[in-house]
Please model this.
Amino acid sequence: MSFGERLRATRIDRGLSVNRLTELSELGKSTICNLENNTQAMPGGQTVIQLCKVLNVSADYLLGLKPGEQK
Model:
């Protein structure tokens, strides 16, 4: 599973729309869409941190370093 697939699955699991994730993370809608569609390079550390905080998942999970969603 790619970063984008994990991001999308987690967002949906949390009941968040792309627009709501954009608001909560303060990232651009195009950034979220590009990450979910794997059309953008791996995000930088600060972006990963913002997404992890909003989605309440570990960076290891989003980056594919650790299975599951444990924090």
